[in-house]
Write a structure and sequence with these properties.
Layout: E1 2-8, E2 23-24, E3 27-28, H1 29-39, E4 45-49, H2 53-60, E5 65-68, H3 77-86, E6 94-99, H4 107-120, E7 124-129, E8 132-133, E9 137-140, H5 144-149, H6 156-162, E10 167-171, H7 184-190
Parallel strand pairs: 1-4, 1-6, 4-5, 7-10
Antiparallel strand pairs: 2-3, 6-9, 7-8, 7-9
């Protein structure tokens, strides 16, 4: 089974308000991300919360499981990935790591990652647009212990660079794999 970890623990400092709660179409940014993973066929979804976790967990409701990242204030993605991996069920063979502030990502992109894993069995699969790594990306259980042992200043980027030969890239013409919402300008630019 392939699960999903959606990273939603950030403090939204550059946005100036909690970006997971911002309106997005008829929903919110985070609810849209969750719905996209569900539309792609991912049923086991875990949202990693941090800043404003009570409001985020209330927003998530029954649509996904949540886990609180007590280290969110350090502002590192690594601690959220680790919190998500530590909370995975034994039945998960791999996880997709998605960003809670990336509501533009399309279900077809997630489906392509799932298909690539089923066909190639690669342990790390990443969407790429114009030679830039994007999200969400997939990491198989074989690498989880290594990720869980990482300590700052080590980063997920360094982990990926160590495994460069094992990465299977999925080329995407869709730049949404690169676009997240960090600032008010980003939000205004991409908002539907």
């Amino acid at each position: 089974m392939i699960a999903a970890i959606i990273l939603a623990a950030g403090q939204s400092k550059r946005m100036g308000q909690p970006k997971m709660l911002l309106p997005w179409g008829e929903s919110t940014v985070l609810q849209t991300v969750i719905a996209t993973f569900q539309a792609a066929g991912v049923d086991d979804i875990l949202v990693v919360t941090g800043a404003g976790h009570e409001r985020v967990e209330e927003l998530v409701g029954d649509s996904a499981q949540t886990v609180f990242n007590a280290g969110y204030e350090r502002g590192e993605m690594l601690s959220s990935v680790q919190a998500g991996l530590a909370a995975q069920s034994p039945g998960s063979d791999a996880v997709l790591i998605g960003l809670g502030d990336q509501p533009q990502v399309k279900a077809v992109t997630i489906q392509r990652l799932l298909e690539a894993h089923a066909q190639a069995g690669s342990s790390i699969i990443i969407p790429s647009c114009q030679n830039h790594r994007g999200h969400p990306w997939l990491v198989a259980r074989a690498h989880w212990d290594e990720v869980l042992r990482l300590h700052p200043p080590e980063t997920m980027r360094q982990f990926l660079n160590r495994h460069i030969a094992e990465i299977h890239y999925i080329e995407s013409a869709d730049s949404s794999v690169l676009a997240d919402l960090d600032t008010p300008d980003d939000y205004l630019k991409y908002r539907p």
